[in-house]
Amino acid sequence: MFLKQVSLPLACCVAMLAGCATPPAARVPWPATVVAIEEVKPVKPMAISYFYNITNGRPAGTCVLRIHVDSDGRAQKVDRLESSGHTNLDEAFVKAAWKAQYQPYVRDGQAIDVTVIAPFHAR
Fold first, then answer.
1. Which residues, other chains included, contact 30 with Cβ-Cβ below 8 Å and sequence gap of 6+?
2. How many of the other CB atoms lie within 10 Å of CB of 10?
3. Strands 114-122, 34-36: pairing kind
4. Could you tell me if 123 and 63 are in contact, meaning their C-beta atoms sit under 8 angstroms apart?
5. Are 76 and 69 within 8 A, CB to CB?
6. Integer Cα distance of 121 and 64 in angstroms
7. Mind listing the pLDDT tens digit of every residue in the chain (123 residues)?
8. Domains of the chain (ranges plus CATH)?
9. How far apart are CA 6 and CA 83, in angstroms?
């Protein structure tokens, strides 16, 4: 009897929270216009900082990101397309992509949202 009384309110709570599970940014589609990072260069150099084990040496590799840059030059979504092979390095690149201010992409005199494909290299 107690199980039935608890399970209905619990099921209602779970159902209501299920709609909150997907963040709003994930629902926004990626812009159809795809450009290279050279077309929406960051306004300032990106600061990349990450931890690594000095005995293993500094990690190297290339991480490719997909960045939704809006008409104001701000990142709205960042997605990793290819890993550098080092989780901490990938996370540093993603964090830098989120923080960066980009030059807005202009088409026909108007700034538009774009999808940017950007390789990040560490040597």
1. 66, 68, 77, 115
2. 11
3. parallel
4. no
5. yes
6. 9
7. 444 554 545 444 444 444 554 455 557 899 999 999 999 999 998 888 776 766 677 788 999 999 999 999 999 999 999 999 999 999 999 999 999 999 999 999 999 999 999 999 988
8. 24-122 (3.30.2420.10)
9. 45
